[in-house]
Amino acid sequence: MTSLSITTTDFIRQPKQLLINGAWVAAVSGKTFEVINPATAEVIAHVAEGDAADIDKAVKAARQALESKVWSGMSPSERGKLIWRIGDLILKYADELAELESLDNGKPVVVARAADVPLAADIFHYMAGWASKLQGVTIPLSVPYTPSAQYHSYTRLEPVGVVGQIIPWNFPLLMAAWKLAPALATGCTVVLKVAEETPLSALRLGEIFQEAGVPDGVVNIITGFGETAGAALAAHPDVDKIAFTGSTEVGRLVVKAATGNLKRVSLELGGKSPSIILRDADLERAIAGAASGIFFNQGQCCCAGSRLYVAQEIFDEVVEGVAAIAKNIKMGAGLNAQTEMGPLVSDIQLRRVCSYLQSGQEEGARAVTGGKQRAGAGYFVEPTVLINTTHDMKVVKEEIFGPVIVAMPFKEADDELVRLANDSIYGLAAGIWTRDLSKAHTLANKLQAGTVWVNCYNIFDAGLPFGGYKQSGWGREMGAAVLEHYTESKAVTIRID
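Request: output the structure for the sequence above.
Response:
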């Protein structure tokens, strides 16, 4: 904590309340909960514990803001300028936001400063342009025309309404940005439920919205627990659409809760993504890419390349290379500028990952490196490479959400490899390493994944859609594709004779 800037320290010390209708207020219940520094397991703040009563207040505020058209009635140009200003302010406070992300989540501050913060600003800048480009089309009708009956038909895009958004703890600021920016661009109003493990950066973002001039009630931010605040938001009858990012298990609960008023639902869920290294790959690039694909953000990425398939001829060399990188990763508190891998986000997540490590080794997997919790304070797990794994093991089938990769050799880059790569309930992402672009295109077309990276991994852009096949979710984040989640298309036909 002594390495924090004065502005971040001051923010931490301030009361952490809920943002409802433009005001910072205590929870109706008066309850608060602790925020834990995962690097030390120490309490760093107390935050208002919102529940169903607070969700109801926030939804009413969002509904009032929607119906008053204080936001959707603003000219598209003005709305776009305000959204752009949010992106600018994120960059202005980049150092502070990076410190909050590191302190709250555990990730290295240098990573948060280089990736999370600028990417969050970028999505606001990108979506600012869409505010003035949401347009319908004119449609020629095929109904029989007569001189006395002619028609003019067109469509228009309108905001879907009040949107409930629930974000995870692995990229708190960035996930808030991914959700909020397109909703604001389309004229919706929002109730954002923040992950209880990592509320700080989203609350600071709420202050940024106020500084930018977002009207009261347009964005409401609730901190609280999933089983109370999150469940109430998903089930609320006056919410028109729910957007959720998190585990597939919780995603199913969100879908069930949303059935009451048949609100629209988009889901960005779990993954068990394959990384495939063909024998003609540039091994230096492939080894570094495969390691980055799993160890980035402590492996707490829905698209983490957690299953590694390597051509048999180069399997030992690749495993040795990935293990060498894992052994040399500098672990420590995220606020330490030398840290390359921070702690897991919580004690619950630590125990989850360690249980998978125990399960894998009991089923016959062998840890080439890592394989256990790091001694000392904080929620640290050693970056781990497991071999002797098979597709019937839990560590291969299930999402671990930690710095654990399972490596398996294959003989031929054929349909059997494709079958193994697709042998998962998930389909979020995949990585391919090869010098042969013909092989790359052929394999990419066969993989059941929403994103395929070739000779790279974890490359994101505000203009690129992101989402998954199968149980990795419904719909896409980012790019033009996300706008359909937040708009209704209205067809208008006018008799003009």
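The chain has two domains: 6-269+473-492, 274-462.
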